[in-house]
């Protein structure tokens, strides 16, 4: 048995992973450009390999939730991040992360603008 596997078996009870991309029920969608996005079933691979609960979350949602939890004056919020590569956000409504119907909530970079996208 590999050292990492023995550490997981003995000490780790849950795995939480934050990814850049849209989190779906089976994994996440990745890619910098809208045309080259693909779904990766990372969460199922981890659950099957280690047989422990695993949470996969979009990178901005935990940041938005953490900010919300430390700022009691706000009830709802949208956290936006502008970088050279993309525009992303996390949404908190009544103290809970809002992911939307298909996990696209907060993915403002894929909003169409004329014949391109905001990320462009």
TrEMBL record:
It comes from the Bacteria. Belongs to the ROK (NagC/XylR) family. This is ROK family protein.
């Amino acid at each position: 048995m590999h050292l990492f596997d023995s550490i997981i078996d003995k000490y780790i009870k849950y795995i939480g992973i934050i990814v850049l991309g849209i989190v779906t029920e089976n994994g996440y969608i990745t890619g910098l450009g809208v045309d080259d996005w693909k779904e990766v079933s990372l969460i199922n691979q981890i659950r099957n390999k280690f047989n422990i609960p695993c949470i996969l979350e979009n990178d901005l949602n935990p940041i938005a939730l953490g900010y919300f939890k430390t700022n009691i004056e706000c009830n709802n919020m949208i956290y936006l991040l502008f970088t050279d590569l993309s525009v992303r956000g996390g949404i908190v409504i009544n103290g809970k992360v809002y992911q939307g119907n298909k996990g696209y909530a907060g993915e403002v970079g894929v909003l169409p603008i004329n014949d391109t996208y905001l990320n462009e």
